[in-house]
Amino acid sequence: MHKIGVIGDKDSVLGFKAIGLYVYPVTTAEQAESTLKKLAKDDFAVILITEQMAMQIPDTIDRYKTTPFPAVIPIPNNSGSTGFGIKNVKANVEKAIGSDIIFNDK
What we know:
Layout: E1 3-8, H1 10-17, E2 22-25, H2 29-41, E3 44-50, H3 51-54, H4 58-63, E4 71-75, H5 84-97
Parallel strand pairs: 1-2, 1-3, 3-4
C-alpha cells in the first residue's frame, strides 16, 4: 500500500495528520532533504512539501521529477503561497506541451 507524507514546518503539517497522512515536521533544509530521501525509499507514492522547504532543496526535488514515484508536490504553508508550486506546474506544462497553455504567460 502506498502512503502519502507531508514535510514542512510544524504549524503547516500537523493538520494533515487528522486526515490520515503521515506528517514530518522539519525546521531546516537538511532535515527536509533527509526526510524526503527517506520517504522516497519507504514506499511513499506522494510527498507533499511546503513551498518554503522545497525552495531550499531544489536539487533534491529535481531528482524525483523524472521518476513515477514518489510524486513530490510543493504546497503552500499556513502563511500562504510563495508561487513556487505554480511556477513549477507552469514550467512542467511548457516542457510537456511546448507552450504555456494554462497561464498564457501571465
